[in-house]
Amino acid sequence: MNQLPNSIEARDVAFQLHSYMDARKHEENGPLVIEKGDGIFVEDNNGKRYIEGMAGLWSVAVGFGEKRLVEAAARQMEKLPYYHTFTGKTHGPSVELAEKLVAMAPVPMSKAYFTNSGSEANDTAIKLIWYRSNALGKPERKKIISRVRGYHGVTIASASLTGLPNNHRSFDLPIENILHTSSPHYRSMKKDGESEQDFAKRCAQDLEDMILAEGPETIAAFFAEPVMGAGGVVVPPEGYWEAVQPILKKYDILFVADEVICGFGRTGNMFGTETFKLEPDIMTLSKALSSSYLPMSALLVNEKVYGPVADESHKIGVWGHGYTASGHPVAAAVALENLKIIEERDLVGHVRDISPTFLKRLHALSEHPLAVESRGIGLIGAVELHHDEMSKTPGVLGARTNMAFHEGGLISRNMGDSMAFCPPLIISEKEVNDMFDIAEAGIETISKAL
After folding, report:
1. Domains of the chain, each with CATH number or no CATH
2. DSSP string of 137-177?
3. Is 226 in contact with 257 (CB distance < 8 Å)?
4. How far apart are CA 410 and CA 406, in angstroms?
5. Do the beta carbons of residue 281 and residue 109 sit within 8 Å?
6. 0.90 exceeded by pTM
7. What is the pLDDT of residues 243-264, one digit of tens each?
8. What angle is formed at CA 330 by the lines to CA 327 and CA 333, rounded to 5 degrees?
C-alpha cells in the first residue's frame, strides 16, 4: 500500500475537489489552510493572520470565534442533536426561528420554509412557483426571468438562474424556462450620454419587452438580488427598482428577492428589501442568518404564494418536497442566537455608522490608474481594475491583485477583475482603514510590476 501524504496540503491535493478552482492548477499550487479565526481575522497553519475581507463567503456577520454561537450549538446538541420537520413533526428551535423570521420580514409574509443553503432556497422557490402555477390552473405559466450577472446558486435550477457564463459552461445549463434580462450595471451597459435614470428605464423596458415577447401569461416570476453580489457587487442605478416593480405588478408576476448576501444588515438595513423599498412575494435567506457557523437557509413566502400551494397539497394529499436537515435544531438554535447578537449589538446601526468610512476608502481606490470604477453600499463594495495589456484575458489582473492582497494579509475575492470587500459586520473603523491600507498597497504593487 502506498504511504499516505503527511502534510495537510498534500492530503488536500490528493483527496479533495474544491469549489471555484482550476483543479489542475490546484494540484500544482495546493491550498491555503485556515486553522482558526477571531473577530475579523483568520489564521493559517503557518501562523499568518489575515483580515477576512469577505466575511468567509459574504456571510460571517458577527465575526469568527463568537462564543455565544458555540454555546448555543452545544446546548442544543445536548438537548436534541437532530430531528426533522417531515410529516407534521417539529421542534422548538425551528418553530421559534420561523416565528422570528416572519416577524422580522419588512413586508407581510405568511410562512417560513427551511433549507440548507442559498442554492437550495432558490431551487425550492422555483419548485414552489411551478407548483403554484399548476394549483391555479395555469400550467403554461412556468417561465422565470433573472438577470445577466445575477447570482442565485449552483444547483441545477439555481445555477440556471445565475447569469454568469462559468456557471453554465459544460454543465448543459441553463435549463428550459429560465430567461435572463439586462444587467443593471450602469458603467458597462450604458449608451453614450445616457443618464442613470434613463439607463434604469431602459433596463425596465428590456424586461417588459421580454415579457411581451414571451407572452405575459407564460411568465411566473422574476428573481433578483437587491444588490448583485458575486456578479461584481453591482448596485442598481437610481430609479431602477422604481421602474421595474410596477412592470411585475402590471403582469401579475411574482417577485423573488434573493437576500442571501444582502440580508441581516449588509446594506445598512436589516434587509436589502428595506434599503430599496422592494415588495417581494418571496424572500430567500442564508449566509448571515447563522453567520454560516452552521448551514442554514430559509424562504419566506406571502399568502399569495402559500395559499394556492396549501390548497394543492390538500388536493394531492401531500406537498412532496423536503430535505433531511430542513430546520435542523442545532442550526436553528445557532441562527436564533446569531439574530439576537445582531439585534442586541445593533450591528445594523453599526453598519450605518461605519459605512461612510468604508465607502470613502473604497471610492478612493477608484482614483488609482489601474482602477476604472468602485461600487458599494453599506458594508459591501468592489473596485474594478483594468490594464490594456491584460484586457484580452479577463480575470488575470484580478487574480494577481488577489495574490498581492494575500501577501499583505488581506483575503478578498476577485470576480473577474473586480476586487470585492464584504467584511464581518463587527469591523471597527480602524480595521476598515487597515483593510484598505493593505488593498491600496497591493494594487500599487501590481501597478509597479506592470
Report:
1. 32-62+346-449 (3.90.1150.10), 70-344 (3.40.640.10)
2. T-TT--EEEEETT----SSHHHHHH---GGGTTTTT-SPTT
3. yes
4. 5
5. no
6. yes
7. 999 999 999 999 999 999 999 9
8. 85
Q: For the packed helices 118-135 and 303-316, what is the interaxial angle rounded to 10 degrees?
A: 70
Do residues 409 and 380 make contact, with C-beta atoms less than 8 angstroms apart? no
Q: Mention every residue, 6+ apart, whose C-beta is less than 8 A from residue 17.
A: 23
Closest CA to 445 of 417, 414, 409, 404: 404
Extract the runs of DSSP E, i.e. beta strands, from 155-296.
178-181, 219-224, 254-258, 282-285
| Total residue count of the chain as it appears in this document | 450
Q: What is the pLDDT of residues 139-156, one digit of tens each?
A: 999 999 999 999 999 999
With residue 420 as reference, give the H or E element that holds it. Answer: strand 418-421
Distance spanning both ends of the chain, measured CA to CA: 48
Radius of gyration of the chain (CA): 22
How is the beta sheet containing 380-385 ordered, strand by strand?
371-377, 380-385, 418-421, 413-415
| Sequential DSSP letters for 307-369 | HHHHHHHHHHS------TTTT-HHHHHHHHHHHHHHHHTTHHHHHHHHHHHHHHHHHHHTTST
